[in-house]
Amino acid sequence: MVLQQALSDCDRAWRNFFDSLKGRRAGARMGPPRFKKRMGAQAIRLTRNARFRVLENGRLRLPKIGDVEVAWSRQLPVEPTSVTILKTATGKYYASFVVSLNHDEALPPVETEVGIDLGLKDFAVLSNGRVIENPKFFRKLERKLKKAQRVLSRKVKGSANRAKARLAVARVHEKIRHQRDDWINKQVAEVVAENQGVYVEDLSVRGLARGPGAKSIHDAALGLFTTRLGSKAARAGRTFAKVDRFFQSTQLCSVCGVLAGPKGMEGLKVREWECGCGAVHDRDRNAAANILREGQRLVAAGQAETVNASGGQVRPGTPGTARNPRDAGQNEEPTRTRLVPTSR
Ligand SMILES: [Zn+2]
After folding, report:
1. 225 CA → ligand 1 middle, Å
2. Is 182 one of the annotated active-site residues of the chain?
3. Which end of the chain has fewer CB within 10 Å, C or N?
4. What is the arrangement of strands in the sheet containing 82-87, beginning at the earlier edge strand?
5. Same domain, residue pair 50 and 135
6. How many CB atoms lie within 10 A of CB 184?
7. What residues does the Cas12f1-like TNB domain cover (predicted)?
8. Are residues 140 and 59 in the same domain?
């Protein structure tokens, strides 16, 4: 059964790849399946046919293995259709059940919409003024990870001490994953509950702004945050759109629509600026306001789907926007890039 499952997973991966080649599959072009590096983690999946069973006494009966004691994290609402037994790199075992439910996850509708600027200093700044700060444990765990990795790098290859050190690194990674996921899920739940429409910037622009360097917990968390925001919003019946990378969210004045903010790498250091129209902006909050407006415009124009599906840009130079990259550098004649103000 386990081997059949692995085979069917492989089959699905190839089918997805061929469908993507022929353009029958939404989303970015995908490559052929690769062997996954398990890093010590292993998994098997058992379907109903394999006759696994949750027993009266709370144990889990697995074929060929026996009755296993389980620390239940929640009650199963219905009979599960499959179970995946997972062994993590740190040697812990998890049972993950698939259940099918009919219930609707849609949240009651609300009036407000929000634009989100993903931060460098803060984790995120919302157009309504709320700031999601970077949690302290990001740095703390990063330091811990560095230390564990340093210890590992000094151990002799193949030695028992190296195996121990590797386990220590895996433990830190696990801790990071658990703490980060818990925190992100809470933030996402809150944003989605409070807003009917959620708009974020496309993250690829951040990678450029930041320059080379290893991906920190913070960077990886930003990506996860955006992905989960999208899926949670979809399940909750909310509007979600990404604003593409040519949109000048930081330089545009959210009051008068003129491209007047500080530019380039220097611009990243400026926290506050004043526009010719007299408006004084906090950089991130202004960006969030622009992302909100651009997101609403994209959705109204029916372009949000294209941005989402392909992850690419919508054609630059659309009338009424300042998304043409060439315009970005032309500070001298800001009136040429005036935005048609959208009513809020
Ligand atoms: Zn202005």
Report:
1. 31
2. no
3. C
4. 42-47, 82-87, 93-98
5. no
6. 20
7. 225-291
8. no
Cα(181) to ligand 1 centroid in Å equals 39
In a domain, 306, yes or no: yes
- Report CA(220)–ligand 1 centroid distance (Å): 34
Residue whose structure tokens are 């415009």 = 297
Structure tokens at 3: 């081997």
Q: Tell whether 85 and 222 lie within a shared domain.
A: no
Which amino acid would we find at residue 158?
G
Structural domain including 307 reads: 113-337
Ligand 1 center to residue 200 CA distance, Å? 22
User: Is 255 inside a domain boundary?
Assistant: yes
For residues 144 and 238, state if they share a domain.
yes
pLDDT computed for residue 167 by the predictor? 93
Question: Is 106 contained in some domain?
Answer: no
Q: What is the pLDDT of residues 211-267, one digit of tens each?
A: 555 567 888 888 899 999 999 998 899 999 988 766 777 888 888 888 877 776 666
201 is catalytic: yes
**What is the DSSP track for 107-144?**
PPP-S-EEEEEEPSSSSEEETTS-EEPPPTHHHHHHHH
Domain end residue (candidates: 98, 123, 158): 98
- The pLDDT confidence band at residue 123, using thresholds 50, 70 and 90, is very high
Which carries the bigger pLDDT value, residue 39 or residue 258? Answer: 258
**Cβ contacts of 186 within 8 Å, gap of 6 or more:** none
**Alpha carbon of 1 to those of 4, 6, 120: distances in Å?**
5, 9, 48
State phi, psi for 10 to the nearest 5 degrees: -65, -45
Q: Are residues 74 and 144 located together in one domain of the fold?
A: no
- Confidence check: pLDDT of 59 > 70: yes
Among residues 36, 68, 98, the one where a domain terminates is 98
Q: Are residues 263 and 138 in the same domain?
A: yes
Residues with CB under 5 A from ligand 1 (ion): 253, 255-256, 275, 277, 279
63: in domain: yes
Residues 273 and 215 in one domain: yes
Domain count, the chain: 2
User: From ligand 1's centre to the CA of 255, what distance in Å?
Assistant: 5
